[in-house]
Amino acid sequence: MHIRINNLAYNYLKGPTIIKDLSASFKQGEIYGILAPNGRGKTTFINLLMDFLTPYAGEIILTDGLSIKDFSLVQGGDKNLYMKNTVEENVFFFSILKGLSEEEIAKNIDKYRQIFYFYDEIKNKLCETLSHGQKRMVAIFVALVSEAKILILDEATEGLDMENINILKELILSVHRDKIVIIVSHHYSFVEEMCQMIYYLKDGSFISGNPSLTLKENYSEIFKGGRSHV
Amino acid sequence: MFKTLFWKIKMDLKSTFRYKFSFISDIVVMTVLLLIFLFSNTGQSLGEKYGMESYKSLLLIGYFLWMISITAISSLSTFLNSEAKIGTLPYLMHSAYPIELIVLGEFISSLLVQSLVIIIINLLAKVIFTIDLYFSLFFILIILICALGIVKSIILCKILYNVLPVTH
Q1: How many CA atoms lie within 13 A of A75 on its CB side?
Q2: Mean pLDDT score, A171-195
Q3: Residue B168 resides in a domain
């Protein structure tokens, strides 16, 4: 399972080129991080990857029978869920949308229940009554239960306290072997700890590297004008 | 596929009845609007044209058809907007089933809620104004045409979405 991106380019109507000559590779079993200050094209890149935008140059190749339906995007903010429905209804509905049966969903819930231990406590609550952090965790839980092969976490740690960040780490580590996990974040230390490969978005292209090479120091100019949690 | 349709209808109905204020305000607004039409003798000329003694029945059926038509239009227009706003559109666009099915579910649930509003207004009209309503198969046929129109509009939206450069 592999995503290959070759020389991707995109610009908004009457706007500057946001993505230019961007190439990257994402393989199964690896956790990838994407770092960049605000307004440098992270969301545009996700939208291109998710096929919500059409690049004007370059290509995105999905191998081994991967299709766009295998993607699951957990967006930042209080998004991803129907607020007037319960947690359980959301989990079932979005998993059914991915083609899973009710039995498979129940099995998957059991699989992650040990890590996501507060599921039983909140499953009958309306999503609007949950805290911001809980909503984020439920959205991530939905993506995992629905068996997405490619998991994209936009602003992954936004609004999460340390306990939830630890749960998130555990969830990602428990599922990443048969998935491609892409973490988009400003939270450098989280990305550095979790990811085998980090892509820094600079001038519309990726600068990639192993976190242990402390690329952040080498490319500290990327963060000029923007703040990042270290 | 039918399970998805069933779940979409179930989710929508549950969320509608959990937010009762919206449902009750629908009934109040629609009843007030009907009262305005009745007291302004709207439809009297149509009654004369069709040779109907009680033009109020004509007005009522026209009113209900209009309610269903706006349900059909608004369930489509608000669907894309609200799903995009709450961030669930990516899930729907990348689901294992065609998005037309989800829109149909949205329409059916809106139609069920609106039918309930229509029944309540019809009862009020019968009790307060003694207006009798005549139903026919033609009424149901129009509803089906509306549903078909919605699905076709969505297909058109999808084609436009793929052809035009979309900005977020």
Answers
A1: 18
A2: 84
A3: no
